[in-house]
Amino acid sequence: MNINRIALIGFMGSGKTTVGLFLSKELSYPFIDLDCYIEEKEGEKITKIFSDKGEDYFRERESFYLNEVIEDYEKVIISTGGGIILKEENRKLLKEKSFVIYLYGNFDTLINRLQKEEEFKKRPILKRDIKEVKEIYEMRQKYYRETAHLILGTEGKNPNLIVKEIIKGLQAYGKM
Ligand code: S3P
Question: Which listed residue, of 17, 35, 47, 52, carries a Cα 20 to 30 Å from 60's Cα?
Answer without folding.
Answer: 17
